[in-house]
Amino acid sequence: MEVNIVSATRPVWKGEAKSVTVPAYAGGMGILPDHEPVLTVIKEGTVIVTKPEGGKLSFEVTDGFISFDSNKLTVVVEQARSLENVQRDVDII
Amino acid sequence: MGSQLALKSRIASTGSLEKIFNAQEMIAASHIAQARELAQDAKPYTDAIFDAVQTLVSHTHISHPIAEKKDDNHRVAVLSLTADRGMAGAYTSSIIHETEALLSRLDKEGKKPELFVYGRRGVTYYKYRGRNLAQTWEGDTDRPSVEVADAISSALLNAYMKPADKGGVSELYIVYTEFINMVVQKVRVLRMLPVEIIGPETPKAAPMGQGASNETHPLYAFEPSLEEVLDAILPKYVRARIHECLMEAAASEVASRQNAMHTATDNARSLINDLTRKLNASRQAAITQELTEIIGSADALNNQEE
Predict the structure, then answer these.
(1) What pLDDT shows up at residue B201?
(2) Would you identify the CATH topology of the domain B4-19+261-295?
């Protein structure tokens, strides 16, 4: 699925992903391809993107929302910062 | 025929003015690139919010104070976007002109406008005339940050959400300059609040059957609830639109400053040309006069000798 992370000042990241975890209002929420269309408020936390080849990227974000529709996920936040790439594959989930 | 010394000093001073204008023009040109970059960086965010609001509109009926009119209140807010610095031609004065027109129109409609001003020039103008300003913001009009947009939109939303008896307002108008291209900028009045949300351009549901419309609009899940999603997204939508206006005003300001400075440079050059011509004519006249005097006196001497 396509992922697009944007902050108020600039686009942060765009690319393909196998799964994404976002800090939803009531705890982490995982999104896999073909999820039902959803518009969810998210709070401050970490967005973790798992790339198709297995690597992980994480982004520290402030409050905002996500929208998922026809396999496109848009993460819209006030501010976002890319954390160091987490390359270890399986041990963090 | 002016004195040559005076003409020379005028040419020198006009020449240095020309250099200043030229420099200002080049500064404005470089700021345009910055303004464009800023607008491009903010665009994905704005687009994402607009898309989300479109989704909300096409899936539900929005009933939220931000999108609905409170008719009982005749106080309205007017935000006028002016420049921080001058030397931008008619930029600020046309905004002020349009603002005055809007204020008197609102007065006629029996509304009580409250004025919010962004930009030092506008603030100075109204302060000098002793007008009451509800709130003002200064700084960064040629490079509006998200923080400024946030400050403005939260102040205005606060005023809008307040009940009428506590000084709330029922509408918000923005007077700003629309950037059409480098040469053309147009002053526009936009009613920002209550938000008029335009649905998708093609109403797909009408000609097709119920089943087809269900297909094109899959059921959306709003979490935690529709109300909370609206509460979270609509203020951001307003802020994004205000930020858009600010950026457009900034681009217009810089463009009109560049145009004004370009005209000023041209004027200075043609003034220098005129003055140089006058100086040459006056030098020529002085030479002619001297020659006439020499020839005249020589003739007189010759006549005496004979």
Answers:
(1) 52
(2) Helix Hairpins (1.10.287)
